[in-house]
Amino acid sequence: MKFMLIVKADPDSESGRQPEPALLQAMDAYNQALVRAGVLLAAEGLRPSAQGARVHFDGAERRVVAGPFPETEQLVAGFWLIQARSLEEAIEWVKRVPNPDGLRSQIEIRRVFDQIDFAPDPDAEPQRPEPRPRDAGAARAH
Q: Engineering a disulfide at 84: which of 30, 45, 51, 89 sits with its beta carbon 3.0 to 4.6 angstroms away?
């Protein structure tokens, strides 16, 4: 099962300040432990919302709002994507995330949908998509 470990933003992450070297070293060691265990699929930190935008959808209408966004506690500062056998295993990995300053923070754990979750029969094996025939015009061009 894949899980996304979502690191919530805080005023420091939204300020754009770089983390202290001790935190960077601790996070690197944690990431290396994830790699050695074979569970890490991806990990990224995000720049502050001031450097981003949101696109709001209302039917066919699109409205773009430039950052920053005021609701810091609802923003994402970064994430890990891991492969774990269960939610309990994912929780155990999150409990090991470094917090050298002892500050209050939060990491949300969410299971990622798998292809099998969308199968008509939940007990069915996932099907590989059929190869799509190339466009006849594109085929002649090669």
A: 89
Look over the chain and give the mean of its residue pLDDT values, rounded to a whole number.
87
Residue 76 scores a pLDDT above 50: yes
CB-based contact 48:70 (threshold 8 Å): no
23-40 burial, b at 16+ Cβ within 10 Å, e below that, comes to eeebbeebeeebeeeebb
Which pLDDT score is estimated for 122?
Answer: 58
Per-residue pLDDT band at 82 (split at 50, 70, 90): very high
Alpha carbon 89 to its chain's center? 17
Exposed e or buried b per residue across 95-112, where buried means at least 16 C-beta atoms within 10 angstroms of its C-beta: eeeeeeeeeeeebebeee
